[in-house]
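QA checklist item 7 of 12: single-chain prediction sanity check.
[x] sequence parsed
[x] length recorded as 260
[x] structure emitted
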Amino acid sequence: MFPMKDKVAVITGGASGIGKATALRFSKAGARVVLADIHEAADEVAKQAGGIFVKTDVSKEEQVKALMEAAVSEYGKLDIVVNNAGIGLGNELQDLPEEEFDRIMAVNAKGVLWGIKHAAPRISDGGSIINTSSYAGIFAFPSYGAYAASKYAVVGLTRTAALELAPRRIRVNTVCPGTIDTPINEGPTGETELLLATYMAPVGRIGQPEEVAALFHFLASDESAFITGVAIPIDGGLSAGVGLGMIEPMVGLITGGASD
């Protein structure tokens, strides 16, 4: 399904998690991949996928431009760009340092902007650009103001680029993952957040990188030619509402265990 033979794909944030899973899936489908990351671990992933690694800090416009140029230089064209690199930090707005806000916006929002800007003049007509937003780009969370702002920005950039590039049949879409089992969840509060996400999701679990990569695969393929400018949640049903796994304990807590 969804063959990608001879397609050339650039994937940022390719060292682990969703980026790594996407690179391996694209390669299996026949694509030639160019992986970008600030971490050298992406080089090994690139080798596994039979592609190349270009060390890139997506917050730096010139480095993103060089990345797109490297893809065209190596493979002669560019068909797919996955702007996936991102960071996650949390602070209540009243405690948010300016440098933290600037760093999150530089990587999560500007990284996508530079990816779109420098892919556009190089990507083939009929190509596909896919941006990674987040469930937090649809709904807000306390203490995630800067992260949410950056991910809302990704949705806005996606929709604008979809309109601007439509005459060339270039699709631009964004995927909004819920909690996915990736290194971004590692940290002092990670275990608690993962447990909370498991209870909140109607399907009763967090997602796997390979499940997000499957959606990327479809959006990158020619079969999605009539889909552009949309933000697609992939969150185990969370955008539909809170699951029973969370509601039932809350009801019990509020009622003190009383029943009808």
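[x] summary fact logged: Residues 63 and 176 are 25 Å apart (CA to CA).
[ ] second reviewer sign-off
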